[in-house]
Amino acid sequence: MRNIAIIDYGLCNLDSVVRAVEICGAQPLPTRTPEDLEEADGLILPGVGAFPDAMAGLEQQGFVEPLRRLVLDQARPFLGICLGMQLMAEYGVEGGERAGLGLVPGKVVRLLPDAPGTRVPHVGWNEVHHLRPCPLFEGIPTGRDFYFVHSYHFAAREDHILATTPYCGSFASVVGRGTLFGTQFHPEKSLADGLKTLRNFIALC
Amino acid sequence: MLKIRIIPTLLHKDLGLVKGIGFNSWRRVGSALQSIQVYGLRGVDELIFLDISATNDSRPPDFQTIDDLADNCFMPLTVGGGVNSLEDVHRLLRVGADKVAINSAAVATPGLISEAAKRFGSQCMVISIDYRQHPDGRREVFTHGGSRPTGLDPVAFARQAADLGAGEILLTSVERDGAMTGFDLEGISLVSGAVGIPVIASGGAGGYEDMYRAVVEGGASAVAVASIFHFTEMTPKEAKRYLADRGLPVRLDAAASSPS
Question: Between residues 41 and 70 of chain A, which touch chain B (CB distance below 8 Å)?
């Protein structure tokens, strides 16, 4: 059974992710100390919260450097979810500019309504259109609906955008490269297709 | 395209789920865990779980119960009832709530909205507004399970909540709740027109046409429904088919959340 570390930096919806990983047949390891990351086959950075507080939490608990080393140097499979995906960026602008983990180039900016009646936050089910092949999409047709709840999005470089979602124009709903991924949607809350996404990630670990 | 959501509402009182009329005359409608499992199998868009006696009993949310429920919920879950502090919000998010609804405390301490939004992000702060309409047409926000008048106008209060960082408004007409006679379309439209955040229409759904009108005439992003799913043959799935046939974007490929 694969061990999946779920990084607990104090703010996130830890339980939902832990439970979903369990259902997907892996051993979830909620972790508050960077040492625990070493043992894990894969890493999940969940997220509900605000960017600055989340980064402060990761820094205080000493996660930033170990994460960068494991993910960038050792290619340990990594999945950032929602705010966890946004934290992968170089920096965010929520509540003032602040550095992110810098795992994927780009910045996190606010969604800007492109038409009257477009509301922010973007809350609900919306389509995920695949742009490039990605192991997370295995067995999931393009255009399926996933659950989103966010006000900011990851403005990533085009070659790191794996899928987009039509809202406020269009934004990156999956970013990544190699075995490093981020989903703006919540796979743990997106019913069968969401759990399938998690299983696909676990299969890479 | 972002889909219109149909959200079953589960009202928890004492030891089980209830549904009333006008925030009164509660009838027992079964267990919360069972309902969540059934709605999961049906692949509903989202669920709202409100502990309607917490505030009046002056007690915090029942974190243990909510933890157990969230463990069985692989769809988005909004939790409310008795939420009074940043710590309550934090604990609910940690046990598995995706969004937290604040009602009475948001009126008593609007600063709680901005503090919670700053710390946890606007996207998970739902401001639940219960209101009644007076014979002269004036609408007024009520707290404590619809029992305490506040003198506040729901439109102005919704706007203030949005300015303070709320991410969504759950707007409930107290007298229409459970009446199954249709939504207060004018009230919904006034609020949705005043804010740039999503509005969930609640209170009064009697049929699929009411849901359609709440979206098209009221400008709601989602409709919360309880009585007709408890007491009639109507289902979330059929509701969405009806909306789809009338040209609204909904999620029809409602694949179940069955764990295997």
Answer: 48-50, 53
The count of other CB atoms within 10 Å of the CB of residue A62 is 13
Count, residues in chain A: 205
Maximal C-alpha separation, chain A: 50
Among A125, A150, A193, A195, most B C-beta atoms within 10 A, so best to mutate, is: A125
What is the token pair recorded at A21? Answer: 């990983």
Helix (H) or strand (E) holding A76: none
Q: What's the pTM value of the predicted model, to 2 decimals?
A: 0.94
What is the third-level CATH fold of A3-204?
A: Rossmann fold (3.40.50)
Question: What angle, 0 to 180 degrees and rounded to 10, lies between the N-to-C axes of helices A191-204 and A14-23?
Answer: 70
Gyration radius of chain A's alpha carbons: 15
Search chain B and give the residue with CA nearest A128: B1
List the end-to-end C-alpha distance of chain B, in Å, as a whole number: 29
Q: Cα distance from B148 to chain A (closest Cα, Å)? A: 30
Domain ranges within chain B, ordered by starting residue: 5-245
Q: Is A127 on the interface with B (CB under 8 A)?
A: yes
Considering the segment(s) B5-245 as one domain, its CATH architecture is Alpha-Beta Barrel (3.20)
Written as tens digits, the pLDDT of chain A (205 aa) is 999 999 998 776 788 899 999 999 999 999 999 999 999 999 999 987 889 989 999 999 999 999 999 999 999 999 999 999 999 999 999 888 999 999 999 999 999 999 888 999 999 999 999 999 999 999 999 999 999 999 999 999 999 999 999 999 999 999 999 999 999 999 999 999 999 999 999 999 9
